[in-house]
Specification:
173 residues, 51% helix, globular, Rossmann fold, P-loop_NTPase
Length: 173
């Protein structure tokens, strides 16, 4: 199975995923961003974009890589990855379903002020990239994302508490 941990940049997906992995037996973290990084390394390069998810090969490569890893290792993949474009999520989730891979889709959420505070506290100079994604995340949350996932509001939770909630939800089914 795949436990997909979605949410905006800076909400704590990577930290929470590592903690979820420790709580779920026979699980491992697979960060789909590595697939994007591989595509970015292709030279002379793919068309210019501000987000590797816009490259059509990224989505099927994520599906196929996850499928291959699961076929080799079994168990559970914990995948921290922001996906804010509904069409991209539908493509990925349909691809995984087509291979018979069950997905539990979680969204880590925090209110805008908390997210901004976390992003600003993370580095001496706040990440413009992360700040730019606050509004696209809010729009996705309003229009489709929260309806397509199990929402874990982390506004008043530690990453450990969020991980415990996700692991408990996964283990209860």
């Amino acid at each position: 199975m795949i436990v997909w941990i979605n949410g905006t940049h800076g909400v704590g997906k990577t930290t929470t995923s590592a903690l979820v992995q420790r709580l779920l037996p026979d699980s491992r973290v697979f960060d789909a961003e590595k697939v994007g990084e591989t595509l970015m390394d292709i030279t002379p390069g793919l068309p210019a974009t501000d987000n590797f998810q816009h490259w059509p090969p990224w989505r099927p490569l994520v599906v196929e890589t996850a499928r291959q890893v699961l076929a080799y290792t079994g168990g559970t993949l914990v995948m921290p990855m922001t996906v804010l474009v509904e069409r991209y999520w539908l493509e990925i989730s349909a691809g995984l379903a087509g291979h018979g891979i069950p997905v539990r889709h979680f969204v880590l959420h925090a209110d805008r002020a908390t997210l901004r505070g976390r992003i600003e506290a993370e580095h001496r100079i706040p990440s413009p990239f992360r700040l730019r994604h606050l509004e696209p995340y809010a729009e996705a949350a309003r229009t489709w994302l929260h309806a397509a996932a199990e929402v874990v509001d982390t506004t008043h939770l530690t990453p450990g508490e969020a991980a415990e909630r996700i692991a408990a939800a996964v283990s209860s089914r």
